[in-house]
């Protein structure tokens, strides 16, 4: 399964915690975007950890799931940040 | 076709221009995320407009395309911003 995770986290402390969790499971490809292949089990674990950190009345996390990666096409305008670890 | 567009635009003027373009075609659902159903033709038109605005050596725009929306599942943690026009 391929997933894209985007987020608006209103507090910097929570934001860093969420990113730290997501980096264990996926690739950080834009400041507010993680993506990559992941199993259903690992995704559930990841989301449970994120859910423990965010403030559900203030923060927003979207998880877009595509079962078969062949059904997803990605186009890039400008730079592809790939693994953002190399840039920050 | 369903698309999700995410972006990192390093200059506020360009950022506002990109958002203004995207709002003509899609729903603004997080600060750096637009999504919605769109035809191939309209998407090409939209991307041509965005391409005219961004600085390709600095900015990053990802266009995730799923031909059949049934192949995409979206889960939300926290708040679903829906149409961000109502929030800003």
TrEMBL record, chains A, B:
Please give the biological process terms from Gene Ontology that the record holds. defense response to virus; maintenance of CRISPR repeat elements
Enumerate the cofactors the protein uses: Mg(2+)
Task: Please tell me where Mg(2+) binds in this chain.
Answer: 8
Q: What class of enzyme is it?
A: hydrolase
Q: Does the keyword Metal-binding apply?
A: yes
Q: How does it assemble?
A: Homodimer, forms a heterotetramer with a Cas1 homodimer.
* Record family assignment: Belongs to the CRISPR-associated endoribonuclease Cas2 protein family.
Protein name per its UniProtKB record = CRISPR-associated endoribonuclease Cas2
According to its UniProt entry, this protein's organism is Venenivibrio stagnispumantis
Q: What is the lineage of its organism?
A: Bacteria, Pseudomonadati, Aquificota, Aquificia, Aquificales
């Amino acid at each position: 399964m391929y997933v894209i995770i985007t987020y608006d986290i209103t507090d910097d402390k929570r934001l860093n915690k969420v990113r730290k969790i997501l980096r264990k499971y996926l690739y950080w490809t834009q400041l507010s975007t993680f993506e990559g292949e992941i199993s259903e089990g690992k995704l559930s674990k990841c989301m449970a950890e994120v859910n423990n950190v965010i403030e559900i009345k203030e923060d927003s996390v979207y998880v877009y799931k595509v079962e078969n990666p062949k059904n997803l096409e990605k186009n890039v305008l400008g730079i592809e940040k790939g693994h953002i670890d190399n840039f920050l």
